Amino acid sequence: MSTWLKRQGFKPDITVAAFFAVVAIFFYGSILWTFYMSLTRSTLIPKYEIVGFDQYFDLFTNQRWLVSCLNMVIFGVFYMVGTLAFGTLLAVLADRRIKAESFFRTIFLYPLAVSLIITGLSWRWLLDPTTGLQALIRGIGWETFTFDWLTRPDRAIYTLVIAGIWHSAGLVMVIVLAGLRGIDNDLWKAIRMEGIPLWRAYCQVIFPGMRPVIASCVVLLMSEVIRGYDLIIAMTKGGPGISTEMPAKFAVDFYFARVNLGLASAASIMMLALSLIMLMPYFYSEFRRRS
Amino acid sequence: MTSVVARRQPAFGPRAARIGLYVFLAVSAIFFLLPLLLVIMNSLKPMEEIRQGNLLALPINPNFDAWVSAWQSACTGLDCAGVRPGLWNSIKITIPSVVISTLAGALNGYALGQWKSRHANMIMLLVTVGLFIPYQAMLYPTVKILSNVGLFRTYAGIVFVHVIYGLPYTTLLFRNFYVGIPDEISRAARMEGARFLRTFWSIILPISTNILVVVAILQFTGIWNDYLLGLIFAGNDNLPMTVQLTNIVGNSRGAANPNVNMAAALITAIPTLVVYFLSGRYFVRGIAAGAVKG
Amino acid sequence: MRQSSGCQVREDRKFKINKNDFRKGTKMNRKCLSSTMALVGLLAASTAAFAQTVDVQQYWTSSSESKAMNTIADAYKARGGKWIDSPSADFDSTIAAAASRIAGGEPPSAVLMTPSAAMRDLASSGQLRNFDDFAAANGWQKAMAPIVWDKMNVGGHLVGLPVGIHADNWVWYSKPVFEAAGLEEPKTLDEMFAAADKLKAAGHTAFAVGGEPWQEVTILTSMIIALGGPEYWNELFIKRDPEALKSPLLPKAFELFRKVSTYTDPASPGRSWNETTNMVVTGKAGMQFMGDWARGEFLAAGQVAGKNFGCFLVPTDKPAYAIVVDIFAFPLNKDEDRIKGQTLLAETVMDPAVEAKIASVKGSVPSRLDVDTSTLDLCAVKGVKSLATPGVTVSSTYDALPGDLNGRMTDLATQFWTDPSMTVEAGVKSLGDILQTK
Q1: pLDDT tens for each residue of B128-171
Q2: In-domain check, residue B7
Q3: Domain tally for chain C?
């Protein structure tokens, strides 16, 4: 594989090997152990007696688990598309010649500094129909104004999307901005000389060149979706009813408080499988491009 | 950089479009600021005003009582000393964790990004999977490993856990940044006989300011705001501030004091906010301005 | 050591300061002295052979809870023990921390919890210390209501010690609101709903409900216990007798549960229980179904039981009292001083004087029957009486159901509550499925 590398006296092998060993021990050790546990009837304390795939049957007959998966898809699609679009737009704007750039950039970035727990709580306060925004707007005279999505089972999930975008748009903005700032000036010169309209320049030249950077964003956001827990806990606690339950919360609930390590492990394994499926297109394109 | 930008064509030509642009930016700014304003306003209200029920009403008698309480007298367990006791622990956990995980991620990301091989891709794929394992699934195995090497509930242990859990994240960001860098840079260095580490340290790192800042602040936020890992791995002498914060904000059976909750939340967020404000200026310089020929 | 040398420097400097600074100087000095003493005390505690240390994993972090925990800690320290506090925000994270510490070989020496599936699980895997000898020597069994005793015994061994008792089938109401509507404290379910109708007509939220799953399920179980009484309750939830599932009581309970939901306000979903209690405190709402920890909220607002607010167990002709017990469990420890610390904490917690103090601070009912209850208020006294009446007290589902069944029932209750299209039959059937799982 690496005659080229050896010729260059370039030895990343050792670094990568050492690093990979650590990841293998912790992450893959955990995955194996979790898979093992998912085959047992472990409660709070691990039990090592294998009973087979019972936990998986339990999982897929559990109404809350099924609703959780569906919710994750709905939330995931809206949150990722919204965050990517909004964040990229902000990055492009911040990279253009606008007044008070650092002022706006700071404002767009600061939510990242706020933990998801606090994000959830403040949005909950803000969207609470009796004390928040709705009450305020009604108070200043628009008596019929209604924004009660937080308390509606069919809409509550979109309030999570709003809070999620609020929190993560800055992440996308800085990553894309870092990428944009790395674009070679010659490229811009060429674009200007060709007289290509700005929006086409971005869509057809700049963004395709930044594909790995954008891929970082996609993967990070996807990880937020799969592991998303804090935001839900702080904002809706899965309610009203089970309308905003998600898989990570399901797993966490069952791990400890509901003393069902076996079922929680099965849920974790399914989450992992689900994320692998979602990642497939990304890796497929990476492999094809690089090999 | 400014001159480079200035030389570009006018960003948005027509006057109307420019006004539209600023309207959009202003509306976005309001969207981003609204929750912060809400939290600040309510942290300045006494409880009687909170009980009135309108959280968006301006404080009538603003004062810092809730802040004082959150800082030094709110109950967090047996002690009622606010979030103060955990401040130093948070700092001493966060700084080494961020530095180590960022540099290790840069090194690995560079190695994986520049290593033209199928294996590199495969490894990146396997590492990325680490981003999708729920923390809770990793708790028992991590506890077992750490207690076997005597690091469970120690200072070194919690830093180690943060570094390990952060590695997939930082590696991915750096790797995807470095694959976009022209090969000529490191090839040129290697021509001159520089070794891998040397190339990395003296050529690659200096042109990575932007991504370094991005990764470092993301790691800073993540580690600073962590609760569960700190609770389990840090041990009683090193509990971070978030444990106290969560004990104030998250207790479910006691009397609710939203003003103190909000003040505590703000106090804990101050260091991250400061980091963001300070790091902002590093975004203006990029590799385009620095290393690659202009 | 560094600390004391720092003090030395300051003391030296004291000789140079003038008269005006004298007061400042002594103040400094005293502070210095106390910190030195604390340091010496710390050293003594960690080196002395008779040291007794307890490391308590707990979740009482609000101000009233903190006071209650301090009551225990102070009494414990007064007996010469050293207390290491390991607080976290809620039951979930406490269990997570305790379980991982046990797995990592550094168990806490006491865990605040409930005699629930988690405790039974720890006990049956041999992780908890038993206190059989102490119980026998001190006559603890006789001091407790039989049901409390039973809950803390696993496989014939006493593995938990009670700190206080709460019950969750209470209803709290606003006296002024009831008086304004010309209402009396309801004696039957019909009267309660009639009162609710009147309150609704008068523009009040009749039932303040916080729309969180655990709050909702409490209403369902309250209806079941009101309709069925203790005997039926035990058949349904303790024996989990399939026959009990066929009772016409269950559909009726689900119907009433849904009926309550029609009296709530639109902002109910996700509201915390204490914000909800506050609606009753301020007279926006008439009644609330909630455990007796709610009393703390009324007291915090300066209200008095029987004057500003009232309380009754969900009305029924078969009185019942569904208890949730706060306990300490003691994971096995190896160090001698930590084992001694556990013993000392056990003695402290079981001291009737300490129990009385906890109850008055936290709003719970003492778990020993021989505790002086003269300082407790109207509502607490009702609880004490129920506990002492044979056959009235039952175990709440939270404590009683094995494994994750209570969690699953909670999921069901919240679905039924929020989804009006779910039929009563479907609700009863799901409950049956849950209770029949092994």
Answers
A1: 888 888 887 888 899 999 999 999 999 999 999 999 999 998 99
A2: yes
A3: 3
Interface test with A, best of B2, B21, B24, B25 (most A CBs within 10 A): B25
Is-contact B149 B143, C-beta < 8 A? no
- Overall average pLDDT of the B75-104 stretch: 92
CATH code reported for the domain at A61-290: 1.10.3720.10
Report pLDDT for B182. 73
Q: What is the mean pLDDT of residues A155-175?
A: 92
B98 and B150: one domain? Answer: yes
C57 with C140, same domain?
Answer: yes
Q: Which of A96, A110, A237, A253 to mutate to test the interface with B (most CBs of B within 10 A)?
A: A110
C271, C277, C282, C284: CA torsion to nearest 10: 60
Mean pLDDT of C412-434: 95
Contact B241, B268 (CB under 8 A): yes
Q: Cα Rg for chain C, rounded, in angstroms?
A: 25
Q: How far is CA A104 from the centre of its chain?
A: 24
Interchain pair C66, B250: CB under 8 A: no
Neighbours of chain C (3+ CB pairs under 8 A): A, B
**What percent of chain A clears pLDDT 70, i.e. is strictly above it?**
93
Both structure tokens of B132: 């999708």
More confident residue, C214 or A239: C214
Look at residue C154 and give its three-state secondary structure.
strand
Q: What is the CA radius of gyration of chain B?
A: 23
**What is the pLDDT, as a whole number, of residue A4?**
47
Average pLDDT, chain B: 82
| Statement to judge: residues B139 and B250 lie in one domain | yes
Identity (one letter) of the amino acid at A59? L
Please name the residue ranges forming H helices in C139-268.
140-143, 146-151, 175-180, 189-201, 213-233, 249-261
| R_g of chain A, CA atoms, integer Å | 23
CATH number of the domain that B194 lies in?
1.10.3720.10
Whether B292 has its CB under 8 Å from any CB of chain A: the answer is yes
- Strands C321-329 vs C393-395: parallel, antiparallel or unpaired: parallel
* CA–CA distances in Å: residue C322 to residues A77, C168, C169, C390: 45, 6, 6, 13
Mean pLDDT, residues C173-177 taken together: 96
Residue C284 lies in a domain: yes
User: pLDDT by residue (tens digit) across C22-61?
Assistant: 334 344 444 444 444 444 444 444 444 468 999 999 998 8
Query: Number of structural domains, chain B?
Result: 2
Interface test with B, best of A14, A25, A30, A123 (most B CBs within 10 A): A30
Cβ-contact A110, B221 below 8 angstroms: no
Residue B88 and residue B46 share a domain: no
Q: Is the pLDDT of residue C1 over 70?
A: no
Q: Considering the domain boundaries, does residue C387 fall inside one?
A: no
Q: Does residue B42 fall inside a structural domain? A: yes
**Is C266 within 8 Å of A242 when comparing Cβ atoms?**
no
- Could you give the CA distance from residue B173 to residue B176 in angstroms, rounded to a whole number? 5
Question: Do both B88 and B57 map to the same domain?
Answer: no
Note whether residue C157 is domain-resident: yes
Residue A161 has pLDDT above 90, yes or no: yes
Q: Is residue B199 part of a domain?
A: yes
Residue A165 has pLDDT above 50, yes or no: yes
Q: Which residues of C touch A (CB under 8 A)?
A: 91-93, 95-96, 99, 102-103, 117-118, 121-122, 125, 127, 211-213, 265-270, 403-404, 407-408, 411, 414-415, 417-419
Q: Is C377 left (phi over 0), alpha (psi -120 to 50) or beta?
A: beta
pLDDT band at A287 (very low <50, low <70, confident <90, very high): low
Q: Is the pLDDT of residue C389 over 60?
A: yes
Give DSSP secondary structure letters for B217-255. HHHHHHHHT--HHHHHHS-GGG--HHHHHHHHHS-SSS-
| Count of CB pairs separated by less than 8 Å, A with B | 306
